[in-house]
Amino acid sequence: MSTMALRTAMIPVTRRIRAYFAPVDRATGTPAIFDPGKHGAFALDAPPPPWLDLGWIDNFQRLCGTPTVPLHAGARGAPAAQFRGSLDARIEFDFREWGKLQMALACGAQHMNVLASDPNASAQPSGGTPLPATAVLTGSTALQIVLGAGAVDAFAVGDIVAVDNDYQQQTGYVGTGIAAAYVNDPADVNRDANYVRRVTFNLGRVAEKTVTSLYLAQPLLGGAPLTGTGVQKVVAFVDREGGSFFQEWAALFIAEEESGGRVCFHYPRLSPTTSMPANMSSGTGMAAAKLFSREEQTQIAKPVTALTLHAAFVAMPHTDENDRETVLCYRSYFPARMASVY
User: Fold this and answer.
1) Can you give the residue range of the structural domain that contains 118?
2) Total H helices, total E strands in the chain
3) If I label 11, which of 91, 215, 236, 240 is the partner at 20 to 30 A Cα–Cα?
């Protein structure tokens, strides 16, 4: 009688895929790292820092454009070896949720906060001259913004606020905690003291307020603000087709286990793209028209539809410290308990 055990639970089963992003340090090019040995089993609703939960996504597709080229030798020209050509990996999906980060990643360029405008300001598509900023006082934290008696009256519970430094005519990356834009020349941004707050990711929604402080629903991504940092009300988000700045983030996509193992896709560096890989035909992967679609409509019940944000990225190279190989992405599989190994 055979004593061979039955093969069990080797099929990953999932309902949805969840997206997590973490900023790349643009000054050093250092990405956030997902270590499957340390982070693989984290709770989806409580990702370890610096990973940020951007919600469930749809139409997740990974595209590989890296060719494998054979080396022919001998009298008959038979393949004797092979090597990999230019590395090229793309990824596409739809964000189901809209927020500051989701919009910024989907548009790819500078993403703007529409600051509450001065009623007498001239109209501008990305927001006109805003109301003056309120200075942050000593004792503030990532969750508590101390403004002082009277100053808090400019804000109400439910408001979104941008908390960042005045623009001081510097060049280079700007934005506390996360690089939000790159300034080549102060004249390009009209030497606007509010420019950093126009683009910053250092945002929060006011959940409570006292006579001196604003309490935020979520901590500021840039941490506790420095004394003297400005606070301004944000009324909307706006992105633009075009722009010279490219977002760059580390990404992690997790297919949560429903009745099987967990699968994780880790991209150390992703940059937005809209073009199909040069060595892929228009019939490969997703349709060419979809590659350039910014939004999708998902029908709920006529005539109600949900708008989703379509995002497409190209994977940038990362050097694996274990063997110095240049790689674009990692796929990790965590088998279900007692599943067969092969």
Assistant:
1) 111-239
2) 4, 21
3) 91
